[in-house]
């Protein structure tokens, strides 16, 4: 434990909430910030930035999907003597040409602060508290990745890696890929959820099915086609390869998707 205050952005979200909770468990002073916390932080309101940063020595940096990390905020953090920043990013962003996250990574590397970048694969919890939950409950999920395998990772493991990077200077200057211990296709992941819940979950991996299902929801075809192109670039990378980052940094094995699915089902997450 030390006396450095850690500012955790997105503290009411699935990742930030877990990071803040883990830091508190370790007795670390935490300033949890979001649009709906006592310490207010809003990317769209730069008057909220300085009060949130005041006195903070470390920063967990993330931005919601579709929101850019503002260069002015990163400069302000450095000017206000934040010493260490850990950025949550994603695997495959070069292939998917994700300029939002690529730009955020550049900002952090050039910030003058000690930095670590955590590139996560797909979260396990996308299936029970994220974008796939409704599809799982409906028994039918569509993602245009065909049978390409992904290394789904538990959010608890991601948060633990983030916390280690925040607390230990040995991780300065590193970009870590954080994955689960095995590569699974979405079809295989759905089968494990079905086994845990006792209810079928059918997976559709074709771009055509994805286009039909998304446009049926009223989304513009042009917007859906942009997503399909990004998924096609991800498919070209082939199957994801598991990394040992969780085990190396935490000293324990990463949680398997089967363990996640069993625990989520037992907790009633898909009722």
From TrEMBL:
Protein's UniProt name: Uncharacterized conserved protein YbjT, contains NAD(P)-binding and DUF2867 domains
Species name: Micromonospora echinospora (Micromonospora purpurea)
